[in-house]
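Margin note: ligand = manganese (II) ion.
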Amino acid sequence: MAETPYEPRLKALQHALTRKNLDAYIVLDRSNTFYLTGFTGTFSILLIGNRAAYFITDFRYIERVRAHLAGFTIVLSKRNHERTVARIARRKSWKRIGFEETITYGDLERLRNADRRLQLQCARGMIEALRIKKDQAELLSIRKAAATCDAVFARIRPLLRPGTAEKQIERKIRTTIERLGGQSEAFPTIVASGPNSSMPHYETGSRTLQKGDLVTIDLGVRLDGYCSDITRTFFIGSASREQRRIYEVVLEAQKRALEGIKPGVAATQADRLARSFIVQSGYGKFFGHGLGHGVGIDIHEPPYLRQEDKTLLYPGMVITIEPGIYIPGKMGVRIEDLAVVTDIGCEVLTLTPKDFSAAVLRI
Ligand SMILES: [Mn+2]
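Resulting structure:
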């Protein structure tokens, strides 16, 4: 049988448990569960000890996981799943049990009530820390998801003309993603035209494109359970002098970051590479968000490229580089690419053209 990526991930977590002096770890988070098992159902509890791992689920999923899950003992739980956890922990003499910071208050309370002797403690970020560095299987999925972004942009180009509504473009993006083999959008697509573009997380509406508009499109594809993320800003017909100036500043800021990012650079330094150029150009107060974020199973995950984050970048991290300038009530420009940190720098995975001449669309 071909080796799956899951065994090494489970082993890495088990090593981390030992270092933290934990007997076991409870995993409820859906993304962490997917990372460790590939399971995409809505209910499971993983109980992972140093030498044994249990996958607890209910009758809806039992058949599916029995066929597919290696490395875990499958446990069918009928009701009161927390008591099932407590029973296994007692049998294995596990006392110190860590849980994720995303656990709900209700789940935690039920676990506590299931067995008061368990020493439950929050051990945050244990799996998230492993997820930061992507393995080959993950990189392959992310590359495919990034290439799909480029294919989507190529196909929606004809819609970017006066008279098209933001919502129409969004719909076309969604259907194109599915036609190209993506599972879905990685997040709700943003199509922000004219003055709407000054809101970085604008909610796509019914405004129609006009000649002289700028339109910012931020889209992502989910494929094989992994996300991609890209933003391009286009000018419908022509760009004003100010629009062009802002576009060139954002593009240059992004270029500086892409050239400077390499292993050993701190997240905050990466942010500064782009930010200092935007500040020098006089637009510092209009770049209100961080330079980027990690992307993987979740669209936003560590590391976060922002001021005050000292995380050092290392090979295998997948991050966005997305400087922007937003002038309230007027316009916004963002240029975003997805990149993987390599041994010597970073490799950009989204390749849709972004030089100024490519951004101005003839109508
Ligand atoms: Mn992004």
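The CA atoms of residues 180 and 310 lie 38 Å apart.
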